[in-house]
């Protein structure tokens, strides 16, 4: 799972909660998706090269609705 945040000055920041430090950005949503895919692949390749285990996903998404006052 990747979390996308629209930046005030344009573009998107994106990070992967299950992979600490794995983050990227893009000027468009599409660019941010492509960039985070590359970042995830590089992150996982580095873990394998270092002989470390790939972490199991532990993050979930849930929509929470509230009524505005």
Notes on the structure:
- The chain has 69 residues and is α+β, with helices and mostly antiparallel strands.
- It has one domain (1-69): Double Stranded RNA Binding Domain, CATH 3.30.160.250.
- The protein is built from 1 helix and 3 strands.
- The chain has one helix at residues 29-49, and strands at 3-6, 12-15, 23-26.
- The protein has a 3-stranded antiparallel beta sheet, covered by helices on one side.
- The model has no long low-confidence stretch (mean pLDDT 96).
Beta-strand percentage range: 15-25%
Global mean pLDDT: 96
CATH topology: Double Stranded RNA Binding Domain
- What is the CATH domain class? Alpha Beta
Specify the CATH architecture: 2-Layer Sandwich
Number of strands: 3
Q: Please state the overall shape, judged from the principal axes of the Cα atoms.
A: flat
**How many domains make up the 3D coordinates?**
1
Which percent bin holds the helix content? 25-40%
- Number of helices, where a helix is a run of at least 4 consecutive DSSP H or I residues: 1
The major beta sheet can be summarized as: 3 strands, antiparallel
The end-to-end span amounts to 32 Å
Radius of gyration, Cα only, in angstroms?
A: 15 Å
Summarize the helix and strand pattern as letters: EEEH
* Low-confidence region ranges: none
Structural class: alpha+beta
Strand order of the largest sheet: 1-2-3
């Amino acid at each position: 799972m990747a979390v996308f945040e629209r930046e005030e000055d344009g573009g998107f920041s994106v990070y992967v909660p299950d992979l600490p430090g794995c983050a990227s950005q893009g000027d468009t949503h599409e660019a941010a998706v492509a960039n985070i895919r590359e970042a995830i692949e590089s992150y996982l390749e580095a873990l394998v090269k270092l002989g470390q285990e790939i972490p199991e996903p532990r993050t979930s998404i849930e929509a929470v609705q509230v009524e505005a006052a």
